Amino acid sequence: MRQSYLKNAALLTGSDIVLRLAGMGLRIYLANALGGEGMGLYQMVLAVYSLFVTLATAGVSAASTRLMAEELTGPPARARGMLARLCAAALGLGCAALAGQWLLAPLAARWWLGDLRAAAALRAAAFGMPFMAVSAVLRGFFVARQRVGPNVASQLAEQAFRIGVMAAALELTAGRDIGVRCAVVLGATAASEALSAVLMAGFCKREAPRAFGHDRAQAPLHAGRRLWEILWPVGGGRCVASALHTAENMLVPACLTVYLGRRAAAVAQYGVLKGMALPLVHFPFGLLGSLGVLLMPEIARARLQADSRRLEALLGRMLKLTMYVSALAGAVFWVWGRPLAAALYGSPEAGGYLEILAPAMPLLYLESMVDGAMKGMGEQKAAFRYSVWDSILRIAGVAALLPRMGMRGFLLVMILSSLFTCMANTRRLLAAAGLRPDWAGWVAGPVLASGAAALAGWGLRQALAAPLGAGRGMQLLAVAAGGAGMCAACLAAGWPLGLGAELREACRAAPRERKGKPESSGHRL
Q: Transmembrane segments in this chain: where (predicted)?
């Protein structure tokens, strides 16, 4: 039985929230189990690991989603052939990343990280690369089929397995060297990636008869060229961005040290921002991440069929809902940022960062959503150029501002970076789609609704002053109650401003079979 778009969005949103909560819980557990030194080593290993993960997977999922969405509208035999070629390309990239990380682990540990204990962890993590790459292709196939159930099931099983194996391994290695304990943590991550790939392969085998029939695979038209046109700008852009991001992560503490005069204080400030404030800022994006994943194949189909009316509706809905959700999230963090950070971390500094970043959250969220839509529109080359320029400008801004302004300079760099990429990508997307800005629906409505929510939030914060002054448990309950009240106020204010019409349209969007197309053509929004 085929799933509706609304059910897919609910599954992806719910699973994303569960996975984010599990990830936050796992990070807290690791911090207690490994201690400060162990977490420091773990974070350094992740800096190198992320580079090779990018090499193995960057662009693969986007290529799979877009190319399979295109091929599933045509002969099933060619669609089967495209999936086989995508899996082969992913396996090659994954094996190359495995070999690179394995061979370079000692050199990276000695010369880059300055700690030989990191070598074992890097080598343990390398074994997950091929599995991760193949899983990315299979997940893209199911997204193109508008069937997200297998993706959700595999990710939940992967996270549960990772947490269980990590906990057992850390218990068995209690008292051992920190390098050994970090190695078993990264080894558990690699094992969980293998489990996920096996599950996705099983789901794909069961889905294949419905998607492709029983025809033998045929070579799709220009498969190599089409794949390369997506892989090199998307994958290349992410690889360059990952390398530049790693360079930025090394530069920020050094520049903060110049401003503060003490390395320990600089690392502590950066840790509060990166490890406490930013995970909270990105957490609400789970409400939008599923929308972006599901819209990408729909945008690709509308563009392929030259259906300008449908393309305009899809992009307009994405932009409007993104602005409503991000403006509400910004208002919530502006009002409740300090109490939330105090309840979770006992850190007023993290709360201050949340308040500063709150007005910029529409830029942060819109930047990510528009980037995904650009790939669906075939504008990945432009997105690549903007990403490279953004990374270069960020490094220049860090070097120029942080020694003079400290963390305030870094926050300013983050906000200006989001403003640049958001404006550049949105302008290019609207031009490519021939879409004119709807200032009333995309900006005025969300601003008014979030303003009403902020006023309601300040009133609730005054009314809940007593619980906010109690223990952490009562503080969390008060923040949850205040956030719920702000959501209700935003919904009530935004409903007559266009939000209600978009939600009603989304609820009426039932799956419809395209006339004359096989079942593999997928749903419309």
A: 9-29, 41-63, 83-104, 116-138, 276-297, 318-337, 409-427, 439-464, 476-495
Which residues lie closer than 8 Å to 423 by C-beta, 6 or more apart?
none
d(CA 128, CA 307): 41
Checking if the pLDDT of 84 tops 60, the result is yes
Contacts with 191 (C-beta within 8 Å, 6 or more apart), sequence order:
128, 161, 162, 165
Tokens of 506: 């989304």
| C-alpha pair distances (Å), 516 with each of 143, 214, 268, 512 | 22, 20, 61, 12
- Of the candidates 22, 96, 27, 19, which has an alpha carbon nearest to the alpha carbon of residue 57? 96
Per-residue tokens: 161: 């397995």
Position 266 pLDDT exceeds 50: yes
Which residue in 435, 444, 429 sits closest to 493, CA to CA?
444
Joined together, the tokens standing for residue 377 give 């529109």
Both structure tokens of 230: 């997506």
Distance in angstroms (rounded) separating the CA atoms of residues 498 and 32: 47
Q: What is the DSSP letter of 114?
A: S
Task: Round to whole Å and give the CA distance between 336 and 331.
Answer: 8
What angle do helix axes 308-344 and 445-463 make, rounded to 10 degrees?
20
pTM of the model: 0.69
